[in-house]
Amino acid sequence: MRANTVIMIVLAGVFGVLAVVLANIWLASQRNAMARTDEVQRDTVVVAAVPLKFGDSLTDDKLREIAWPAGAVPAGVFKTTKDLLAGEGTKQALQAIGVNEPVLATKITGPGQRATLSAVLGEGMKAVSIRVNDVLGVAGFVFPGDRVDVLLTRKVRTAQGADQSFVDVLLQSMKVLAVDQVADESKESPTVVKAVTLEVSTKDAQKLTLAADAGQLSLALRQAAASKGETTERITLSDLTGDTPDDVAARQAELAKKAALEAEAAAERKRAEDKLAGLAQAVERVGSQIDQLSKVKPAPAPAPAVAPAPEVREVVKEVVRYVQPEPPARATVSVYRGVKFETYDVPRQK
Question: Cα–chain-centroid distance for residue 89?
Answer without folding.
Answer: 44
